[in-house]
Design a protein that fits this description.
352 residues; alpha/beta; TIM Barrel; 2 domains; eight-stranded parallel β-sheet; two-stranded parallel sheet; 15 helices; 45% helix
Length: 352
């Protein structure tokens, strides 16, 4: 609650001094304010405790976000990003809308809204999941930990024993444990954790089906309407944890698959989890991508276009202390206020 009040007070102070408006112009005249969403639902928390928190936004709240962005920014397609980066600065700052992971509910709920309002957007997909009934690895891990948490007497101790390493004190629930494991383990090690905790794959049978991915037909319809289709890797492995061969496979295969299945020249790549190293960026460049998107303010000095920051938003990200949509907080999100006062948790090599 205290954090909510502080966030609200900070946003109103920044808005009152007009520092947010100045930051919008300075930061986003050429490099757009890129917003990242995940799931778009009719009602939040409908999947109960199994679904990952901070991944959902309701259609009603997304509408509020889009309307605010439309009033204060010129909304562009990522297909026009080359022009935006090269054109002379314009008075109105730029913004772009993106969706990660390729959840099917984006097609059912966000896509009609975007078409109705004539708003361009981009979808970053995990290509191995498209046209399958398999759920994203982060959803499966979180659900596995939710189940294990309810069975363990001392969850942190049990997790430490399983891993053979001490679990940090800030790991206090399944969500924080999910974030911790993805930051320190390879995808193969994450699969081993899930197999150890759920050898019968019970979680796969109880996870809600509406967490499922898009089909190629859905993506083709989005492509045909002008939506940018980009890669979010092959399997959603956190690339900063993987060896060079796995990184190149994740980036390269997914681009080739999008070309083969949809006939698109995928120019945009979103780093899973936002984590990257210099080697990861070089691999993404070698795969043929022109633009890469992360979720922090770090940039690769030789590949600025491959480390464009984004801001992740969800249902509660722009609510005031009373639980209402706050234009001041939304404006501060666009100004980068909260990014500059918080520590970056992403993994980068020193110097980036």
């Amino acid at each position: 609650m205290l954090r909510s009040y502080l966030k609200n007070a900070t946003a109103h102070a920044v808005s009152w001094t007009r520092l947010d408006a100045l930051a919008h112009v300075r930061l986003h005249r050429q490099v757009p304010f890129v917003v990242a969403y995940h799931r778009v639902v009719e009602r939040v928390n409908a999947c109960g405790p199994l679904a990952l928190p901070a991944m959902e936004i309701s259609v009603a709240m997304l509408t509020r976000h889009l309307e605010w962005l439309g009033r204060h920014f010129h909304l562009i397609s990522l297909d026009d990003l080359s022009t935006a980066l090269e054109r002379p600065p314009k008075a109105k700052p730029l913004a772009a809308i993106t969706f990660d992971d390729g959840y099917g509910d984006v097609f059912h709920h966000a896509f009609p809204l975007l078409k109705r309002k004539g708003i361009p957007a981009a979808m970053f997909v995990v290509t191995d999941l498209v046209n399958t009934s398999e759920l994203p690895i982060h959803e499966r891990l979180h659900a596995t930990l939710v189940r294990a948490w309810s069975q363990w007497t001392s969850p942190r101790s049990s997790l430490s024993e399983l891993l053979g390493k001490t679990t940090p004190p800030n790991v206090s629930d399944p969500f924080s444990a999910t974030r911790f494991l993805f930051n320190v383990l390879t995808a193969a090690e994450v699969e081993w954790v899930m197999e150890s905790l759920d050898p019968d794959h019970h979680v796969d049978r109880i996870l809600p089906k509406n967490l499922g991915p898009l089909s190629w037909e859905m993506l083709a319809a989005m492509r045909d309407s002008g939506m940018t289709i980009g890669s979010h890797s092959k399997t959603h492995a956190f690339l900063a944890n993987e060896n060079d061969a796995r990184v190149r496979e994740e980036a390269g295969f997914s681009r080739l698959e999008l070309q083969r299945r949809l006939g698109v020249d995928a120019r945009c790549f979103a780093y899973p989890g936002g984590s990257f190293t210099a080697e990861v960026v070089e691999a993404v460049a070698s795969a043929g991508y022109e633009f890469g998107f992360t979720i922090c303010r770090h940039r690769h000095p030789r590949h600025l276009a491959l480390t464009i920051p984004r801001t992740g938003l969800w249902e509660q990200s722009c609510l005031d202390s009373s639980g209402r949509f706050s234009q001041a907080i939304m404006s501060s999100q666009a100004a980068g206020t909260f990014r500059f006062i918080s520590r970056c948790r992403q993994r980068h090599q020193e110097g980036l």
